[in-house]
Every structure is written in C-alpha cells, then in structure tokens.
Amino acid sequence: MVKSFSGSNSISNAFHSSKLLINENLEEHREYREKLMMQAGTFSQSISQISTQRSIGISEDLLQTEHMTISDLMDCTSERSVALLAKVVEIDCESKWWYPSCSKCFKKVDCNGVQFYCEKCIDNVPSIPRYRIQVLVFDVTGSISLVMFDKVVTQIIGKKAADILGDLEKEDLTDAVPNEFDALIDKEFIFKVDIGAMNIFNNWSVYTVKTVSGDDELIQKFRAMHSIQPYSDEDDQSVGNDVQQQDDNLDV
Q1: Residue 185: CB partners within 8 Å, gap ≥ 6?
Q2: Mean pLDDT of all residues in the chain?
C-alpha cells in the first residue's frame, strides 16, 4: 500500500500479507534485464522499444521496421535497426556456440579454478550456458555474417542451451555444433538487425540480430510488401560458390 503524508510517499504492509523484494535474483528479473541488454540505445529508448514490441507483437514489429537488402545494410552509415529477409547458408563451426554467463547479469564469466568470476558483479557467481552462434546469410544482393544470442536462438530452436549441452556432454561432444542447428540451414528468416557504431566506424562485419521469424505466412507478406522476388536456382548456386571460395581462402 502506498501512503502519502506531508508531501512524502511511503510503502506499507497494511494487512501483513505482502512481501517487498529488493534486488532478488528472480527469473522474472533476469528475463527483464536480458530484454534490456538486447535492446540498443539508451535506457529510455530500450523501455520504449520493449513496450512497443509487446504491444504490437514480433510479426507487426518486423513488418513495420525499415527494410534493407544486404547491400543496403553494408552501405548504411547511420545507426539503426532494419528488417532483412535472407537465407541461412552456413553456421560458423570455428566459433563456440555457447558461453558461460553470469546468472545475475548474463555477462560472460571466466572460470578461476572451480568458480566463475563476473567482472561486472565483482563476485564469484553461478554460471549458466547461453547461446551465441554466428551464421552466414545471403539474399540476391550479397552475403553477410550475423550473430544471434540466447533469446533469439532459443526462440528458433525451442530448447535452452543448458538442455542441449547436457545431451552433448553425455557423448563428450561439447564443442560440436548440435544437430538442432541443422534446422537453420537453407531456411529463410526475417531478421531484425542492429547496425551499430562498431559496424559503421570500425568496419565490424558481423551484425547482431535482435529478433527473428521464420513464419512462412509472414515471409510471404513481407515479400509482397517490399516486392522481393523468390530465390532462383542460380542464386543458390552463386552463393554456394561464394561460400566455397571463403572456405578455401581460410584453408590457405
């Protein structure tokens, strides 16, 4: 109950039936903090973006976001979020697909023997595995690398990283790319992508995904809105050659 006296507000427990929790490590709090971390810009902008996405839904958010092709995105010189329709052609197997994170703030933690230390929380903390996967995607204008973090990957895979990692550990395959990721290959998605300062000013070539949808009906609607033609066999062959060339260059 909120009371006001002499111009000051206070909280009281009038019926001895409620509990006020401060800085508790609750699942609801962790999810809320994660949503804030996934948003770009200032704190106030993050709150506004989260509220907007909740009210209009992911589908409407993607349809209302400015559309760009890969070529447009790579030429962009201002920070913004854009919607990109592209097909996943490869998962980066060189990068680890998960990382140990702080159970409080979700930042990556380092193991100092038998415990994990979080530099942000300045404390030893319990760790939880979280997704981080990098994929190569293409459209008719080019190809680009995108990175997807825990919230987005969980949305696509339908499993938490801890569950998949537990299954792989039984087979001693913790560094292998899980079979569940095969569902991404050769599939089209609408990605909501951040173009950040690192991409613009530091020529960072990997872009962060904020939201994603692989819904066929939504993709068709998105295509119609932006007059995007379906991929042809020639497009698939062309990107296949590009991917092979990139792999060959890495092997040299």
Answers
A1: 88, 89, 90, 91
A2: 80
